[in-house]
């Protein structure tokens, strides 16, 4: 597997980069909005009491009640929150049939279209921002609809390219693209915000959109939906993949009834865990910069802190993924036991970290959030070798259906979390972040307990 002569390893790396660009384009707005908005004007105009509840912003050794990030957009806190939420609402329109489209049209073709559309929408974001807030809001809504096709395409490709014994370690690698996007995109965006390149924050969207378009050319050249149709695969690897992947699909010649899938307890565990982790991921992707800003941290620090949990997840995966493959591959423990252990670490560990995040950081002690975010990222990575590996393993011939169910739960979780944040922002509650992180912790515990009882990789 770990060889440049192994094209499935090349495909794994391409899927990693695809995940990065797919989510970096969506998430660039999370950091950019902190720079786009003239926060001092916005808070004085729309939220007169916010300066009394929020922390003073530290910048170059000085502090002041200014939320001192230059910007030209006079968007209220609720408008900012809605802008960050729009893509999740847009996904609701397409998520139900995204898996079916990936199956029927070919996941490689669908992935190409997703990358190109995402690139185009990202490139025109500065133009729409200056033109009209509502046009920008619509574009984010459309990006969400496009984004819902991304994950089903990735999962369908993974089911065709990676045999059972490679699934856990391959998933650990290519899903790291999400963490690179969550971390590096925020750091890059924060750096570009402070630069004079192309006017500062607009350069975020030009750079992200342009590099996505460039990568798409590499994907078209080297990626295909199945090993049999890929000209870069050598004959030995082609035979190996044909024996270890297609054979499993052929055994399922009689389609599993949808009712049996919907009534399956292991499927319920996958859907519930996916809901829990999507709920938390949405908070970290879309709203962590705003949370850190309200703790009084400057934009440079926000960029580094936002990177922290995602890079910690990559570090955790580099340990957990190989361990699961080693112990299950040598029959020391079953793959089901390994996935349950990994999921327990992810669910219960993340729950504890979220509780700490809800009660410990404050205006006088904002930097403790860094340590908590490191712990959160390390334990969160267990989910990849938990419920996600289970989803890739239990029914390859029904991957499109399973992916659609998983995607629906992800969108519902994203909408739920953003709705909660929007509602609490509207109320102006000083305890909104305590309530948000505590609710995420409870949901994580419920998902982990259900998988511990009903989860399987068979």
Automatic annotation (TrEMBL):
<keyword id="KW-0732">Signal</keyword>
<dbReference type="GO" id="GO:0006820">
    <property type="term" value="P:monoatomic anion transport"/>
</dbReference>
<feature type="transmembrane region" description="Helical">
    <location>
        <begin position="401"/>
        <end position="421"/>
    </location>
</feature>
<dbReference type="GO" id="GO:0022857">
    <property type="term" value="F:transmembrane transporter activity"/>
</dbReference>
<feature type="transmembrane region" description="Helical">
    <location>
        <begin position="204"/>
        <end position="222"/>
    </location>
</feature>
<protein>
    <recommendedName>
        <fullName>Major facilitator superfamily (MFS) profile domain-containing protein</fullName>
    </recommendedName>
</protein>
<dbReference type="InterPro" id="IPR050382">
    <property type="entry name" value="MFS_Na/Anion_cotransporter"/>
</dbReference>
<feature type="domain" description="Major facilitator superfamily (MFS) profile">
    <location>
        <begin position="14"/>
        <end position="458"/>
    </location>
</feature>
<dbReference type="Pfam" id="PF07690">
    <property type="entry name" value="MFS_1"/>
</dbReference>
<feature type="transmembrane region" description="Helical">
    <location>
        <begin position="345"/>
        <end position="362"/>
    </location>
</feature>
<feature type="transmembrane region" description="Helical">
    <location>
        <begin position="270"/>
        <end position="292"/>
    </location>
</feature>
<feature type="transmembrane region" description="Helical">
    <location>
        <begin position="114"/>
        <end position="133"/>
    </location>
</feature>
<keyword id="KW-0472">Membrane</keyword>
<feature type="signal peptide">
    <location>
        <begin position="1"/>
        <end position="24"/>
    </location>
</feature>
<keyword id="KW-1133">Transmembrane helix</keyword>
<dbReference type="InterPro" id="IPR036259">
    <property type="entry name" value="MFS_trans_sf"/>
</dbReference>
<feature type="transmembrane region" description="Helical">
    <location>
        <begin position="368"/>
        <end position="389"/>
    </location>
</feature>
<dbReference type="InterPro" id="IPR020846">
    <property type="entry name" value="MFS_dom"/>
</dbReference>
<keyword id="KW-0812">Transmembrane</keyword>
<feature type="transmembrane region" description="Helical">
    <location>
        <begin position="433"/>
        <end position="454"/>
    </location>
</feature>
<dbReference type="GO" id="GO:0016020">
    <property type="term" value="C:membrane"/>
</dbReference>
<feature type="transmembrane region" description="Helical">
    <location>
        <begin position="304"/>
        <end position="324"/>
    </location>
</feature>
<dbReference type="InterPro" id="IPR011701">
    <property type="entry name" value="MFS"/>
</dbReference>
